[in-house]
């Protein structure tokens, strides 16, 4: 997503007096950004809130997720024209591409995987301290991702943080 925003901004630097030559690539990259957003981070607030909040607090959690999402969409709509005037369109797209990159890092470090977990397992996932979770993400999952998807090595998927904690507890109780 970050790359498409950056490409939209950089495509405005292309020389030429014809506005159509500049608008076409910008529209293409905005559409590609929107597609990636819809497939990735877009629905996360709604899906994640629906999964992680206990049943008794789910309504309030979903309400806050929708409120925060819409508030920042409004902030974006209000601030973009001013930023475009002050920073140039390329600068504004670049700024939001940078924010998108920061958001990716925050999601990687703080959003826990909840796919196909029961409510009891969710309690275990969220009982792991944030410091331990970030350590696991940076020392186990990031190296796995780089080796598997960038270097294209066929390696075993490492155990999740819950499985790792269970193994540590078993080893402690065996001794």
Describe this structure as you would to a colleague.
With 175 residues, the chain is mainly alpha-helical. Helix content is 78%, strand content 0%. The protein contains seven helices and no strands. Helix 3 packs across helix 4. The radius of gyration is 21 Å and the shape is globular.
Residues in β-strands, percent: under 5%
- How many H/I helices? 7
Radius of gyration: 21 Å
Shape, per Cα inertia axes: globular
Structural class: mainly alpha
* Percent range of helical residues: over 70%
Low-confidence regions:
none
Mean pLDDT: 85
Order of helices and strands: HHHHHHH
Extended strand count: 0
Q: Characterize the main sheet.
A: none
**Gap between N and C termini, in Å?**
49 Å
């Amino acid at each position: 997503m970050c790359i498409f925003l950056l490409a939209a901004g950089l495509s405005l630097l292309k020389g030429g007096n014809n506005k159509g030559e500049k608008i076409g690539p910008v529209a293409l990259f905005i559409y590609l950004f929107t597609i990636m957003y819809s497939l990735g981070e877009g629905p996360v607030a709604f899906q994640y809130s629906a999964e992680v909040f206990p049943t008794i607090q789910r309504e309030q959690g979903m309400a806050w997720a929708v409120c925060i999402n819409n508030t920042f969409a409004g902030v974006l709509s209000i601030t973009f024209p001013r930023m475009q005037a002050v920073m140039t369109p390329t600068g504004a797209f670049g700024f939001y591409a940078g924010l998108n990159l920061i958001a990716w890092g925050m999601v990687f470090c703080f959003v826990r995987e909840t796919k196909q977990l029961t409510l009891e397992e969710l309690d275990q996932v969220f009982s792991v301290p944030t410091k331990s979770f970030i350590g696991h993400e940076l020392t186990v999952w990031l190296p796995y991702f780089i080796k598997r998807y960038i270097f294209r090595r066929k390696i075993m998927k490492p155990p999740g943080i819950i499985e790792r904690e269970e193994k540590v507890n078993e080893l402690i109780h065996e001794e």
